[in-house]
């Protein structure tokens, strides 16, 4: 990623490359964003800290240590609501980017043929674990929040995310070569 900035362009490392580029290009037409997709969050964050990259869209967990020490300055969170772990940060919408919502999420997946009893038991156990005050606090310190759901709710959310981001990719004209 080093040494790839173009004169007059703002180098941006991001995992949500397409959405960020669209929002950035509209907001700053005189200094367009040029996408740089890092191999991992740590090299991308190092380039932000070192000044090779001007900004990065990254989840809170890998950014929190650097935010806490002041090595980077967080401007906003990308979710529709403020993050509990960083409640002082506005959302992108609050910061002036209309209709912007992009969450980082994790889910536990099983093979399609897993028995309903195993799925139900695992869901119940994980829900109990993530509701415990100790685990909740550990997650918050890392910049994460546990959101419990049913297997069906998780499936529906994943389908909606695939549809949403599929439309973003299609509208961008991006393709795999």
How would you characterize this protein structure?
With 177 residues, this protein is mainly alpha-helical. It folds into 2 domains: 93 residues, D-Maltodextrin-Binding Protein, domain 2 (3-Layer(aba) Sandwich), CATH 3.40.190.10; 73 residues, no CATH class. It is built from 6 helices and 3 strands. A 3-stranded parallel β-sheet has the order 2-1-3, sandwiched between helices. The protein is globular, with a radius of gyration of 18 Å. The N terminus is likely disordered.
Structural class: mainly alpha
Q: What is the level-2 CATH architecture name of the largest domain?
A: 3-Layer(aba) Sandwich
The total number of structural domains is 2
* Integer-rounded radius of gyration: 18 Å
Quantity of strands, as a count: 3
How do the SSEs run, as a string of H and E? EHEHEHHHH
Give me a quick take on this structure.
The protein is 44% helix and 7% strand. By secondary structure, the protein is mainly α. The chain folds into 2 domains: 10-102, D-Maltodextrin-Binding Protein, domain 2; 105-177, no CATH class.
Question: How are the SSEs placed, and which strands pair?
Answer:
Elements: E1 10-14, H1 17-27, E2 33-36, H2 41-49, E3 55-57, H3 60-69, H4 116-131, H5 133-141, H6 151-172
Parallel strand pairs: 1-2, 1-3
